[in-house]
Design brief:
about 400 residues, five-stranded parallel sheet, D-Amino Acid Oxidase, Chain A, domain 2, FAD/NAD(P)-binding domain
């Protein structure tokens, strides 16, 4: 493979890298494209979900072949109230993602290939071979540390088959009627078929990481409490998504290195951790470039990250209010208050497109956090205080 020239090499076949390769193959079939992935399949072991309103109609159209599940709405439930939303909800499975992208890209996909180093114009493989290119994109995902203050969304999910139909017709996006442990806890349930569902135990926590055995036991207890009897574990997925409390430092231009996208570049919804909408928008912008080169990609990413950073500032504020002002045991109250807001505000929040009226509606009213703690969190830099916060006003 040494000496082979490509127009573009994408390293990392997860969501961001795979969606970009899919879009380029559709809009720019003339490109000599290579998608390199360490694992034997693309997409890892994930389920990526999104609201229809997170994307424009045109964006939904081009990713539609990748969608595995669709529901006409979804529900949330807290102690004391529940609520349904009629915004359609969709999900992409990693298995279907792998199959569809391989079918479209064919020999351009290189799986089971370890990479030892990346540069702006070449990729060195672990076996010593070098793939040269006009440009290289690093889509390998978030590193072990994010380089900025953040909390975490930790989760473990199991795809289960039950002995009888579960009775759900649409997702239960957030069931917070569970014991509140390790921060804000909820169970996420996606009905994938009449007798199958993805049941995920999720925590908005101060620290990264999960106790897999403990979360499996909690899922089993939740399933039993719902009256469902499990007959098979079909699949399991887990992870920890960074929830930034302040914006990541803007990357310094590095013309010798590859361009970074996805979680590697901090391109995700700061509060929900959703990566799909940002990945779709960026894929469209890259595919629309008149010329795809190392320089044009670096310039585009700098502009794109600046726009994203501007949009995310309000979400960083929300995160600080949630993690720095609210005691862990009280965070569910903040989330319950959010889900009582008008549908329009909630749709815009998930889409990452809040206007001034939306922001005011989120902030106005009696906050579910102590007053002085909220002020300190709002105007802080995202780091946790070294001295106790002032007590709440009586």
């Amino acid at each position: 493979m040494g000496g082979v020239t490509h127009d573009l090499i994408i390293v990392g076949g997860g969501l961001s890298g795979g969606l970009l390769a899919w879009r380029l193959a559709e809009r720019r079939p003339e490109l000599r494209l290579r998608l390199v992935e360490t694992d034997q399949s693309l997409g890892g072991n994930h389920t990526w979900s999104f609201h229809a309103s997170d994307l424009t109609r045109a964006e939904r159209a081009w990713i539609d072949p990748l969608v595995a599940h669709r529901w006409p709405g979804h529900d949330v439930a807290f102690d004391g109230f529940s609520r349904g939303f009629d915004t359609p909800y969709l999900a992409i499975s990693s298995a279907g993602f792998d199959q569809a992208i391989r079918a479209r890209l064919g020999a351009s996909v290189l799986c089971g290939t370890r990479v030892s180093s990346l540069a702006a114009d070449h990729v060195r493989l672990a076996d010593g071979a070098i793939l040269s290119a006009g440009a290289v994109i690093d889509a390998t995902g978030a590193g072990p540390t994010m380089g900025f203050p953040c909390a975490w969304q930790n989760f473990l999910g199991q795809e289960l088959r039950f002995a009888a139909p579960h009775g759900l017709t649409r997702p239960l996006l957030m069931d917070a009627r569970v014991e509140q442990l390790d921060g804000f806890r909820f169970v996420y349930v996606l009905p994938l078929g009449p007798d199958t569902a993805l049941v995920e135990d999720t925590y908005y926590a101060d620290r990264r990481g999960i106790d897999a055995g403990l979360l499996r036991a909690r899922i089993a207890a939740y399933v039993a409490a719902r009256g469902w009897r499990t007959v098979a574990l079909l699949r399991e997925e887990s992870g920890s998504l960074p929830i930034p409390l302040a914006g990541p430092p803007m990357p310094r231009p590095d013309r010798a290195g590859p361009v970074r996208i996805g979680m590697r570049a901090g391109l995700a919804h700061a509060t929900t951790g959703y990566t799909l909408p940002e990945a779709v928008r960026l894929a469209d912008r890259i595919a629309a470039l008149p010329v795809i080169s190392a320089d044009s990609l670096a310039s585009l990413l700098a502009r794109h990250q600046a726009r994203c950073a501007s949009r995310q500032r309000f979400f960083h504020l929300v995160n600080r209010m949630l993690f720095l002002a609210a005691a862990p045991a009280d965070r569910h109250r903040a989330m319950a208050r959010f889900y009582r807001l008008p549908d329009r505000v909630i749709r815009h929040f998930y889409a990452g497109r809040l206007d001034a009226a939306d922001k005011a509606r989120i902030l106005v009213g009696r906050p579910p956090v102590p007053f002085f703690a909220g002020l300190r969190a709002a105007f802080g830099d995202g780091t946790r205080p070294t001295v106790p916060l002032p007590p709440a006003l009586p």
